[in-house]
Design a protein that fits this description.
6-stranded mixed β-sheet, translation elongation factor activity, GTP-binding, 33 strands, 6-stranded antiparallel beta barrel, 22 helices, alpha+beta
Length: 706
Amino acid sequence: MIIVTAGHVDHGKTSLIQALTGMNADRLPEEQRRGMTIDLGYAFMDLGDDNRLAFIDVPGHEKFINNMLCGVSHARHALLVVACDDGVMPQTREHLQILSLMPLESLTIALTKCDRVTADRVSEVQIELGVWLAHAGMLQGVSRQEFIVSAHTGFGIAELKAHLQTLSESVQTTVDSAPFRMVFDRVFSVKGAGLVATGTVISGCVNKEDKLYVINTASGSRSGLNAGAHKQQVRVRGLHAQGRESNFARAGDRVALNLTGNDHDIERGDWLSSIAMPEPVSRFAVVLSGFMPKHWQSVHLHHGASHQLGRIALLSEAPLTTSSANRKEYLAELVLEQPLLPAAGDMLVVRDACGRETLGGARVLELEVPTRGKRTAERIEYLTELAACIQKANKTPLLALTVSCSRKAVSIAMQAWSLQLSEAELQQHLGCDNRGRSDSTGLVSRGDWLVSRTLFDGFKTEMMARIAAHHESNPDELGLGRARLLRVCHSGLPTALVNQAIYEHLAAGELVMTRGQLHLPRHAIALSADELPLWQTLEQMFIQSRTPLWTSDICEPLGLSAKQARALCYKLVQLGYICALLKDRYILSDTLQAGAAMILAHLEEHDAVSTSEFCAGMQMGRKAGIQLLEWFDRIGFTRRLYKANSRTLRDAELFEYLRPIKTPRQAQMPEPNHLSIAATAMSAHLSAHLSTNRAEGLSAGVSTGI
């Protein structure tokens, strides 16, 4: 258990901790010389049974408010110190305001220096403090206990120590199942040990030899830190918990970790986690409370042990309907100059642009925000519903996850970090099978993406309707490709989920894919009575030329205009009869497959095929041969060697069915040259894959040519 202090400068916070623990929390020589806390200090009080209570002593001076905010970040228990002679001072009020933003479970109040004042003055301070506590609305449900003490005479110290011991015993010490997470507030080197980083465990637990991920939210802005350094993995070589050497630490413990494996500098404000963290974000949705925000207001934002400058982008000027009359809340987005990595539910402290006044808090709702439609009624309704899930005392991650998935597809990695779920917990929550379906939770996952079954089925219905409408308006087109289908549907789903929807339709027989085009099973295209003789004439032209033809080459023989010739060729491409090498230049599909078969046969005996060998084998001109080879390069079938005029295979599976299958007798016979191998490949396999009405003519033409 950790207790953080709060209070005005020179109200006796450090002296009170020393009276409780016997340890001076002022570790810096400058602090001891000036008698004033500058940076965070630490002390420990033995409770017996090998238990210890940790204290974080924060500075009370307004110039060191950044250090104070670092110390109280994610605080659960606080000790508010108020001197009886001064009473409630400016930093007392600001520290109390900051504590009201933290997820406090208990607040202990110590009225110090009682030996310097009368009993009436103590009563006046108690009344004054009660008024300010009443203004801190967020502290209404927090258990409070008040003590009158004097660190100089020892008055009330025993009672305060007994209370703290009872409070420590009442805190549950069960191991948190959430992933481990902490932020570094001190980083230094120890001779003989190496790098040591200290902080407070926010959630989860850590053991020696654990491998954890360290992240720098500046993402490479510091000197010597490259773009990929923010996800380096480190190993816990040694561990101290609550000021003692240990093998284990849990949430709420003060720890010092001896880390190894870091390749780059680690500094205060960096994070450590047991799960792989996504990219830091510089824009995220929040709920603002404690002040009346203005649109595009410049502010200081404090999270963990770091703070950034940013602006407030109000999403709605009206307060949330769930907010109370005396504590209004507003939906907004924070736009930061440097990225941070908060989790959903984290509270950021908002201060004015000059850094002189604490305005209020910003509770994180969502890390992934849209670029458009930020202020639509649907978006506001969604964020309001999400805020209700996040702000509940006993929030269930599955509830917030379901709300997010009901409106859009979400990244599983981002949701795992945002909701602080381990991979095992996330899979347990999802309950998805190996095909990405989850009947129990109504969610669908594919790859790193997750969406609700309702939204997913809606996209499937929309997709089928768009394909049917396309068939009706374009009867001469075979169907739609995946990319064009996405554009037509105006879907925001990622490619992995779109592929899952297409797969389910294909598996159910509701869609058919032909030559990369998606269409309904009942839809087919065919040449009309007028187009059929044109195709027969054009086919013979291709066979006789053995080379690709330009659109201008076929206009005069067929008696067509350029526009009519292009329309005919487009339909023939849809049917798979020809293929477009370039704009307005086409080649017979059979000739294209013959070229692929020749390359496969040649490369079984050679490391590469040169352009001259390919052109000679295909009996093509060099220009046409190069265009065909470049087409093979574009589809990924071949790869041109560097500074060479030859090619090797890149993806043989594209034309694997064209490989010749040798009989045992053929395997024993001596092989002729590579051109004869190509001839054997084409004569044996093209006849099995080409249409019957063209097989004899093409086989004769190819065999004669080679």
